[in-house]
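Researcher: For the annotation table, I need structure tokens for PBP1A family penicillin-binding protein. Please keep the output clean. Sequence:
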Amino acid sequence: MEAVTGSKKRWRALRIFSVLSILAVAAVTILLISFWLWIKILGPPPLAIPQSTLYYASDGSVIGESNSGEKRYWISLDEVPADVTNAIIAIEDRTFYSHHGFDLKRIGGALAANIKAMGKVQGASTITQQYARNLFLTLDKTWSRKLLEAFYTIRLEVNYDKNDILEGYINTISFGHGAYGIEAASQFYYGKSAKDLSLAEASMLAGIPKGPGIYSPIISVEKAKARQKLVLGAMETTEVISAQEAKAASQERLVIIGKHPHHQAEIAPYFYDTVKRELKEKAGLDDRSIALGGLKVYTALDVKQQEVAEKAISETISETSDIQAGFAAMDPQTGYVTALVGGRDYNESSFNRATQAVRQPGSTIKPLLYYAALEHGFTPSTLLRSEPTTFKFSNGQDEYIPHNYNNQYANGEVTMAQALALSDNVYAVKTHLFLGQDILVDTIQKLGVTTKMKKVPSLALGTSGVKPVELLNAYSIIANGGKKIEPVFIVRVEDFHGKLIYETPSPKEQVLKPELAFVLSHMMTGMFDKKLNGYATVTGASVINQMSREYAGKSGSTNSDSWMAGFTPKLASVVWTGYDKGKEITLTEDKLYAKNIWIRFMERALDGQDEKEHAFSPPAKVMAVPIDPVNGKKATNSCPVFRLTYFVKGTEPAEFCTEHLHELDKEPIKVKKEKKKRWWERIF
């Protein structure tokens, strides 16, 4: 009886144990499933990894870098050579692709070895664990840190595939000397990209993360070589290389550079500053993303043009002069700013005179005025009197008396083409007042100038300040036939994974009439054409002998500012020179700086380029007519000088010049000789 009772008790106990065991397993299973679901709901951990942001010129060269003192350049796993990944897996975590974040066998072996040695002699961290530690944790040795490491390891394994984890690890591990990730390490130790690493180089680098302060070849060549052999042995054991390959790699002589390739911008520092500002203002990025987001910022900078611009300024302005300079160049077709100089010495003054200084543009504003005039019925042959003039206004009290340079006047009528070439101020003010003062303000704004303009008679002579880069933008719109553009410093921005996050839109809106823009462009070539000499010489006379091709341009000056701006259809540039505090420019040599810098830049920047690509090509709605430059009428065979001038079809002069017909009677022999050439062959 007692035996039966005992048997029942044991059976009851067994059932209770079984039920409890099932409940425990179920609870654990539910707990694990709940934990897994919680991990999935949490999603992938945010990988806020500081990465160096790199700035590229148009040719792909690096012109600048921002970082926190740690060099980090993310590259995709596809760009990493197999020798690198094989070496790292062989030495760090051979079961990486088969475990789920933890290698239990290694943990057991490491624990036994550490107990036996009565100290830590062996580690068992997997690549995933090390990646979690690199991303989220400090290096303190506490239980809470260990638990967090395990938690992040699980989150990584659940939410990322193995290749993502391996890519992240390879891009975040420390290789010493401020180099984090395989790309930064390869650049520092070997001066090359990681994609070009050999087996010997890869195996040397794979051994460093174990102890960068010990195994760096810069710190100890012997220890680095010993560690390299250990890596090669592990690769041979895992059968990713042969014994012969391991031996050859261990014997290969490696050249260690030991220098980071990218530093603060040594070229175009003003351009570099402007790009960083536009990353915030136009791309909408915050300071941390810009500095440490691992961005790849592709800019419009042309390294050759930048060097040419910097040299032109340094060799033109005397070293003893305090005159400053602001310079910018642009591709009129795209708006790409290809060169920028904000001052003569960035270390002395980081103030950007090309993008920040607001200075009176003087007569460089006149092409904008004359575009408005063309829109309102003027032509290059429109005549106005050039003579000392006092403009009186309706209130009977205000008056304005503009003066020409050196008080030189035609004391007669001049054409708009000649007025522009000689920079006649009276003609400009008469045109401005005839059109109405609102017209010029509206035209200036239409051409991209955002600085506020004063509606005054002197606006026609450039008394309201503009920024050099604004004037350059306006000239570029004229050069491209009237397409609206804005200065583009940043072409596109990619994140550290190569995803496009910002791109500059292409210009589309037509803001000027193409035919009028071309007529104006051709009028602007007149400042370099001696055929337009009259009561004064053309304003570009001093640089004509330095020109090898046709340019459109306009100079300008005030008491304290000197300007030169101009273009071909594919390159425009502007130069401002003057004193920062508005001191008067008195020396003749100083007044010529802007023109000389401009022509030297244009000639050198375009040297070797096909002249046809930079030639002005007339649109269909214009026609060329030989014009007597003095009276603006159609030239005849008797005119001593005539210039081919463009008009919108239907606006060309109908009247022929008759002022020189009497010369036929005076010089019949000369006329006879002249008749041997057809008149259109003597246009130039």
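Researcher: And a one-line annotation?
Model: DSSP finds 24 helices and 18 strands in the chain.
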